[in-house]
Amino acid sequence: MSVSSPPRSQRLLVVEPITAEAFAPYGQVIFPNTDGAPFGPADAQLVLNQGIPRFYLMTLTHAGTEFHALTRHRRCTQCLGALANQDWLIAVAPPSEADQPDLSALKGFHIPGHCFIKLAVGTWHAGPYFTQPSVTFYNLELSDTNLTDHQTCNLAQTFGLSFVLKAR
Fold it and tell me: Which of 61, 93, 96, 165 is 20 to 30 A off residue 133, Cα-Cα?
């Protein structure tokens, strides 16, 4: 007899428009500001002191809206934004010391193309997701984040779940 993964139940996660208040448990939303404005709390509060920062562009194709895993980075913040004013979606669960995300606090957000997000250290996330054929994103994290600071919880194996992000 072989051991198989539990049957997968698919759940809808309704996305909400992102606001600074709604996203606060997971990080920050950075909206455009006037040039020359002094540094303040509306600016990304970055944690990139555990290594060499890496800022790069990544083109993703056919991301869809379904996910069955959440990932977190415990050593740094991560900033994501789309180029060309493209809207996109992300799912997030708050940081914690637990080895698994708190799915009761899982939220989906719609990110308009004129802003970016900063994920707090340890924030569980899935995405970016979108329905366009491709979107180019900028990403700010550490140079070795995907090698040394990449903890993933497979929701299908752990909870028998997958999620589909759905607009309101």
Answer: 93
Q: Please count the CA atoms within 13 angstroms of the CA of 165 that sit on its side-chain side.
A: 27
DSSP 111-130: E-TT-EEEEPTT-EEEEEEB
3-class secondary-structure state, position 44: coil
Q: Is residue 93 a contact partner of residue 103, using CB atoms and an 8 Å limit?
A: yes
Structure tokens at 44: 């990304």
pLDDT number for residue 29: 98
Average pLDDT in the 85-111 region?
A: 97
Asked if residues 76 and 48 have their Cβ atoms less than 8 Å apart, the reply is yes
- Identify the band that residue 22 occupies on the pLDDT scale cut at 50, 70 and 90: very high
Q: Beta strand pairing status for 134-142 and 78-82?
A: antiparallel
